Amino acid sequence: MDPVAFKFLGAGLACIGMGLAAMGVGNIFGNFLSGALRNPSAADSQFARAFIGAALAEGLGIFCLVVALVLLFT
Amino acid sequence: MASPIEQFQIKPIIPAINFTNSSLFMVGAVALIVGGFMLATRKRALVPGRGQSTAEILHDFVAGTLTDAAGKEGMRFFPLVFSLFMFVFTANMLGMIPGFFTVTSHIIVTFALAILVIGTVVAYGLVKHGTHFFGLFVPSGVPSWLLPFIVVIEVISFLSRPVSLSLRLFANMLAGHIALKVFGGFVVALLGAGGALTILAPLPLIMAVALMALEFLVAALQAYVFTVLTCIYLNDALHPGH
């Protein structure tokens, strides 16, 4: 097989990591929401913390995007 | 048809001094912020008007985020954090106007901002706490046989901070704008195809409108996330050691 084809395959495989990061972000917000519905009065104070967790989880998915972009465009 | 990444092309406007469309929108964003705040705070009324209320809400919002994350001493970094928030927010929002250039969709811009933050953290931490600043990498209450590994992991996670801070903002703006352009391209392609396909053309248009709303959310959210993470990193410089 052509070596360039493997590059594209690798870029596609790197995108799996983005899906996994999506699961992580969904997990954070799902748990935040279920906690917030149990105790709505405490929800506001933990809102920023939920976003920090989501941002950190999302950052790892973005590393996968960068791997894919590097494979595609170099 | 134009390629979806053509919108990120940097074009020189005044080649003699390397003034590009990116510089133009950076200057535009700063002018908008400075002009807006000067106009809003000109009267300084006890009962604020519409403009002054907006300025006060923005100020209190960023001040609240900063004191939540870094405590009262964090307020000495307020000018830095507020400038960063306003610049990123305004640049993101300016980029949402069709045809406008998005400054934050270039990694060099976001990386410069992230390096500024991490540089401030390292410089302030070393000046204020000296070698005690390195206590940041040694969490307390870890079994001694685990400590070498934890220190290595902490150092790596600290070094990846400027990378992840800049990549997050850059990749979100880049991916969002490419997605908008791709759906816009679908509309043109379906209209050009003619026949029965022309009837389908409104479908990607509806999707593009929905994506536009999502992108406004992302633009505001990423500015907020950038600010919150800046506050957390500054907290490490103010209070090192776990």
TrEMBL record, chain A:
What residues does the record give for site: Reversibly protonated during proton transport? 58
Which residue ranges traverse the bilayer?
6-29, 50-73
Per the record, the major location class is: membrane
Signal peptide start and end residues:
none
Question: GO molecular function terms here?
Answer: lipid binding; proton-transporting ATP synthase activity, rotational mechanism
Entry-linked Gene3D superfamilies? F1F0 ATP synthase subunit C
Q: Which domain of life is it from?
A: Bacteria
Q: Which GO terms describe its cellular component?
A: plasma membrane; proton-transporting ATP synthase complex; proton-transporting two-sector ATPase complex, proton-transporting domain
GTP-binding as UniProt keyword: no
Q: Which residues form the V-ATPase proteolipid subunit C-like domain?
A: 9-71
**Alphabetical list of InterPro entries matching this protein:** ATP_synth_F0_csu, ATP_synth_F0_csu_sf, ATPase_proteolipid_c-like_dom, F/V-ATP_Csub_sf
Q: How does it sit in the membrane?
A: Multi-pass membrane protein
Cellular compartment(s): Cell membrane; Membrane
Q: Which UniProt key words apply to this protein?
A: ATP synthesis, Cell membrane, CF(0), Hydrogen ion transport, Ion transport, Lipid-binding, Membrane, Transmembrane, Transmembrane helix, Transport
- Which HAMAP family did the record assign? ATP_synth_c_bact
Q: What does this protein do?
A: F(1)F(0) ATP synthase produces ATP from ADP in the presence of a proton or sodium gradient. F-type ATPases consist of two structural domains, F(1) containing the extramembraneous catalytic core and F(0) containing the membrane proton channel, linked together by a central stalk and a peripheral stalk. During catalysis, ATP synthesis in the catalytic domain of F(1) is coupled via a rotary mechanism of the central stalk subunits to proton translocation.
The family classification in the record reads: Belongs to the ATPase C chain family.
Report what the protein is called. Answer: ATP synthase subunit c
Q: Which organism is it from?
A: Microvirga aerilata
